């Protein structure tokens, strides 16, 4: 019984609530009808032109009351927002982005207060919950009494423009960050040379602040001498004959210190190809130039020292040869007069002769080494086949050693004496170090790009890899071989380097060695 009473009471309350809602709806409906009637009256007052404009306008167009209720939208606005005030109640409060709500309310109040037309930008939600940026220009619609009663406005989608602007702004910030962190100075100037932007490196370079540089012209921080040189290139730049150029020029710092810089200047053009600005990339080369001057001085000093050393070696070698010949002659006289000497004395004489010959060979080697890059003889065409034949004819080659030419050698252009030294030293070296009963020396040549590549192969004692570099040093000989001065391979390397070639070798101990070298074609 109690449950039944409770149910009846609940139904009664529900009925009362429904009646209240219906009454509110009637009131609201009446208000809307009044608003529509007033709006219709206003629109009719504006005539057929307004109706035609409303129906045909391409831009988004809407009409609201002063409380923000959207009363009318044209086709473009309905398609853009997805809302249709004919089918649903829509208030601008419902579609304004939450982060722009305060801005919208404040702007609307100012609009009503000032009654002036301005353009506002804000975000809205479409019916599909998409966020769109719009640019909105509202106007007031007055009633017959001249009082504001409605608002109307045209709005357009600027989402892509805002996104592009944001991307551009982000890129600008990234570019500014790159420029500010760059190690080289970058400065932008207009066509009159007035500085309009610079990065931190350029500011630090001249010890000026950005604000101070904005008050300066490029000429104020440059030297007049450099300006005169640069002006010719600048004329070519502005005439379109060149797009950029590089110059080394001096700048004046805030403290008056002179700094050298490598400067690349490039033109900046507008969409029609007219030069509007010039950008310069400036790199401090003061220290580099100082180092270059020091190196030039050291190079001159080294060249002079080398000349003195070569002259000294030449003089010493020449002066030593005279007493050496005298000693050899004296030993020969003593040997002739010592017929009755013992066999030990004769051995000592022979040993003395060998040492004198070795000394003579050593002095000749020093003289040859010091003159490799000193004597400038006239270059000739040299048939290496004939040259090598002459070398083999004058070289002592034991009967058990065979020399083979594996290919026809080329004709090269150079100095005959140097080429003789080169091949003679390599052939002699191969002959000396062959320890096999049947010795073989193979000489070959092939063309590789712009170089002739030669090889001289033997089946001698071989060389351990750890000595590959050492054997080219002066006075370095791995074995005590009769007739070896320890300078031959040093001369070979120096001659090859003189002709801008390279030399290297491959070798297997107890099997043999192959020397390779190149000479420009």
From TrEMBL:
The PAS domain extends over: 46-115, 171-241
Oxidoreductase in keyword set: no
Q: Which GO terms describe its biological process?
A: regulation of DNA-templated transcription
Q: Which reaction does it catalyse?
A: ATP + protein L-histidine = ADP + protein N-phospho-L-histidine
The protein's name is histidine kinase
Q: Which residues form a coiled coil?
A: none
Q: What is its EC number?
A: 2.7.13.3
Q: Which organism is it from?
A: Polaribacter marinus
The enzyme's first-digit EC class, named in words, is: transferase
Q: Does the keyword Transferase apply?
A: yes
SUPFAM superfamilies per UniProt: ATPase domain of HSP90 chaperone/DNA topoisomerase II/histidine kinase (SSF55874), Homodimeric domain of signal transducing histidine kinase (SSF47384), PYP-like sensor domain (PAS domain) (SSF55785)
Which segments constitute the Histidine kinase domain?
315-521
What sequence ranges are listed for the domain PAC?
A: 118-170, 245-297
The protein's matches in Pfam families, at most eight in alphabetical order, are given as: HATPase_c, PAS, PAS_9
- Check the record and name the InterPro entries matching this protein: HATPase_C_sf, HATPase_dom, His_kinase_dom, HisK_dim/P_dom, HisK_dim/P_sf, PAC, PAS, PAS-assoc_C
GO MF: phosphorelay sensor kinase activity
């Amino acid at each position: 019984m109690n449950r039944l009473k409770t149910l009846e009471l609940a139904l009664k309350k529900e009925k009362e609530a429904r009646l209240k809602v219906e009454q509110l709806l009637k009131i609201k409906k009446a208000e809307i009808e009044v608003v529509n009637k007033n709006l219709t009256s206003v629109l009719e007052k504006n005539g057929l032109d307004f109706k035609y404009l409303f129906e045909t306008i391409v831009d988004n167009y809407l009409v609201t009351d002063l409380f923000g209720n959207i009363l009318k939208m044209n086709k473009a606005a309905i398609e853009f927002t997805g809302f249709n005030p004919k089918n649903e109640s829509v208030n601008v409060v419902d579609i304004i982005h939450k982060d722009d709500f305060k801005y919208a309310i404040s702007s609307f109040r100012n609009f009503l207060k000032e009654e002036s037309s301005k353009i506002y930008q804000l975000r809205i939600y479409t019916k599909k919950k998409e966020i769109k940026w719009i640019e909105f220009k509202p106007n007031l619609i007055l009633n017959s009494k001249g009082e504001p009663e409605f608002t109307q406005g045209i709005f357009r989608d600027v989402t892509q423009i805002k996104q592009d602007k944001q991307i551009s702004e982000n890129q600008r910030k990234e570019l500014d960050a790159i420029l500010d962190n760059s190690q080289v100075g970058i400065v932008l100037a207009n066509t009159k040379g007035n500085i309009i932007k610079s990065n931190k490196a350029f500011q630090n370079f001249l010890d000026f602040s950005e604000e101070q540089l904005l008050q300066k012209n490029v000429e104020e921080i440059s030297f007049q001498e450099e300006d005169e040189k640069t002006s010719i290139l600048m004329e070519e730049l502005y005439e379109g004959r060149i797009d950029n150029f590089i110059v080394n020029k001096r700048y004046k710092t805030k403290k008056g210190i002179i700094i050298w810089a490598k400067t690349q200047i490039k033109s900046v053009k507008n969409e029609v190809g007219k030069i509007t600005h010039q950008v310069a990339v400036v790199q401090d080369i003061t220290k580099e130039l100082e180092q270059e001057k020091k190196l030039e001085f050291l190079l001159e000093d080294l060249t002079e020292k080398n000349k003195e050393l070569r002259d000294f070696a030449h003089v010493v070698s020449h002066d030593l040869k005279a007493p050496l010949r005298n000693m050899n002659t004296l030993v020969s006289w003593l040997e002739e007069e010592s017929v009755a000497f013992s066999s030990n004395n004769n051995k000592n004489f022979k040993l003395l002769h060998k040492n004198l010959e070795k000394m003579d060979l050593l002095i000749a080697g020093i003289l040859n080494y010091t003159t490799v890059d000193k004597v400038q003889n006239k270059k000739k065409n040299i048939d290496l086949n004939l040259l090598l034949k002459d070398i083999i004819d004058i070289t002592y080659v034991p009967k058990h050693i065979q020399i083979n030419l594996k290919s026809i050698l080329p004709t090269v252009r150079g100095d005959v004496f140097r080429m003789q030294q080169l091949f003679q030293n390599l052939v002699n070296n191969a002959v000396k170090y062959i320890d096999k009963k049947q010795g073989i020396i193979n000489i070959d040549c092939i063309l590789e790009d712009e170089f002739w590549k030669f090889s001289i192969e033997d089946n001698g004692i071989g060389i351990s890899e750890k000595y590959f570099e050492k054997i080219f040093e002066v006075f370095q000989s791995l074995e005590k071989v009769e007739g070896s001065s320890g300078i031959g391979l040093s001369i070979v390397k120096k001659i090859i380097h003189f002709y801008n070639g390279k030399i290297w070798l491959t070798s297997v101990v107890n099997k043999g060695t192959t020397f390779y070298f190149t000479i420009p074609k």
